[in-house]
Structure formats: C-alpha cells, structure tokens
Amino acid sequence: MDTNLLQYYNWVIVPVLNVDGYSFSHTTTRLWRKNRQPNSGSTCVGTDLNRNFAVGWSGPGASPDKCSETYYGTSEFSGPEIARERDFITNWQGTVACYADIHAYGGYFMSPWGYTYSDPPPVDYAEMDTLMVASVAAIRAINGRSYLYGSVANTIYQASGGSNDWAYGDRKVIPAFALECSGTSFTPPTSSILPVGREVYAGIKALANNVNARL
Fold first, then answer.
1. pTM exceeding the 0.90 threshold for the entire prediction
2. 180 tagged catalytic
3. Domain CATH code at residue 131
C-alpha cells in the first residue's frame, strides 16, 4: 500500500465475517454458505448474512424459506455478525470514506443497487462508475483479466438485503462496492491465491487512491 494511503486512512479489514459458517465449511459441508444460527420451528440452520441487511431486506433475490441458501432471516440484522458490523459502522467517529465487501467468484466490481434494477441517483452513480472504471483497469493491468462492473442487479443478478446497498443507502457511504474475485469456482486451486490476491490488491489500491483524490 502507498505510504500516503496508510497515513491518510484508518483501514478496517475483516478477513472473515461469517466465522461459524466458515468453520463449519471445513467439516461436513464444504460449500456451506449461511451462518450457523438456529431457525425456530425448522431443522434447517442459518441465515444468509448478505441477504440480512436493512436496505431492500426480504425483496427479490432473497428467500423466506429457512432451508434456502439465500434465506433472509427473521428480521433485518437478525444475524448477530452483521448486527455487530452495523453497530461498528454506525458508531464510527468520522467519515467512512469507502466500503468494499469482497466475495468469490466470477470477476465483478459492483455498486448499488442489488435489490432493484434502478440505479442510484445520477450524481452518486456517476461517481461510483468512475471509481469502478479506474479499479477494473488496475486489475486488468495485473493479470489481463477484465472484471465486469456496474450495479449488482444489472451486472450479476438481483439480490436484496446486501451489504453494499445498506452501506450506501442507510449509512450514506459513497462509494460502497461488492467485489467478486475472479475464478470459476468457490474452491479454486491454491495456485490462484497469489494471482487473484495481487489483482484484488491493485483494484483496492486504485480505489483508495481515487477516493483520496475525491475527499
């Protein structure tokens, strides 16, 4: 990271938010997605934490079925993990310059909205579009991979209750992104770790440099 970026920002990096779900994925169900929160009245366990945020909650692209991988939970922020994230961001002293939620897989760099096909207000979307263009160019310069970019719903699919929709729509963080690392599987070969890590690093670095210029 550029020295000036380390001096300019306080970086908050959460390597794994869904800790119990991640741990369980290394036992009997390798591709477990949800957390491990019990669901009252059902033997099916877990809430999809990226369908549990407040903005657009329980809308299209999320399921009321407790057995579904995209189950949106009993209420907004019913998942304790993201309730803590909400509290942390809400209570942050100062400006939250940017929000980025990194996932796998596919190679996408996406802005709000996910819950609707409509774009955010033109001025905000134009700003986020400019930042996405710079970031995907930086990514492409590393390994030659071209990430698709645009709003979540229009780039990949409609998904309600997502983290970057909430960060932008409720907490007014401009910009707020969802980044899907390149690849063709949730279980990529270990040989892809460094190449994908380098390109994601380049994209985040470009994002930080350009957000810094904006502030």
1. yes
2. yes
3. 3.40.630.10
